[in-house]
Amino acid sequence: MANKSAKFRFYGTASHAAAAPQFGRSALDGVEAMNHMVNLMREHVPAESRIHYVITSGGEAPNVVPEFAEVFYYCRHPEMDQVRENFEWIVKAAEGAALGTDTRVEYQVIHGLYNIMPNETIAKLMHEQLEKIGGFEYSTEEVAFAEKIRKTLPEKKQSDFSVTNQIDPFEVIERGRGGSTDVGDISWVVPTAGLRTATWVPGTSAHTWQAVAAGGMSIGQKGMMIAAKVLTSTAIELYKNPQLIEKGNQELERRVGKDFKYVPLLGDRKPPLDYRM
Predict the structure, then answer these.
(1) Number of domains within the chain
(2) What pLDDT, in 10s, does the model give residues 81-115?
(3) Cα distances (angstroms) measured from residue 243 to each of 55, 118, 121, 251
(4) Residue 52 shares a structural domain with residue 124
(5) 262 inside domain
(6) pTM for this prediction
(7) Residues 144-170: pLDDT tens digits?
(8) CA angle (38, 44, 117) in 5-degree steps
(9) Which of 44, 127, 186, 253 is most buried as measured by Cβ atoms within 10 A of its Cβ?
């Protein structure tokens, strides 16, 4: 999915929350008012939109009116043009929240990612290599490890660990779904394809300790090696068959249009290397 994120920083006036609240202007009120308005906005954006946030700073102590507060937003949609539209609305909510709480707001765009542009030419070639290389099987030790992981998952159904040896049918995903990646930007200027391999115990969700645990042992390593072999063999075939590169480029031009010009969602700023701080 295309994705644009920003940190919205509200500035108010500190004051004693009990002795002199009338002199304070709460930056946290600005954040909360913004969040409320964005949550109301969800009802009126396309259903495939995804908007999520975390409050990264909300004040120092309950008895002090917060003079600074910050909220970190992600705004996603399968199409980048809709992300631009939704993000502009989020900015309006922030500005309205600042007006309503008598605070001041500024925002910093943290990243902007295009949705992935599929390329069937390259994707088919990659799938052919995956079918040649195949999957892998769990060892006895890996089955025991996977069983322990399975017991911690929300759905504790008996898992068929043999799925790691199965290759899914070929599929080109025309519209983004799930997460976001800066590979999306590359895919609008260079023919791009990708694949997934079984590096987690079946049923594992991303961004969990279970995913990290499997990735740190042989289950993840085996899946990683499948991916590495597929990527390498795909590259070799492209070197050997330049006509496939030309066909991929023709498909890319057809999909994005001859007049397409890449304009980063990030804007003209340098990527912030301290965005997690």
Answers:
(1) 2
(2) 999 999 999 999 999 999 999 999 999 999 999 99
(3) 51, 18, 11, 12
(4) no
(5) no
(6) 0.84
(7) 999 999 889 887 655 678 888 899 999
(8) 90
(9) 127
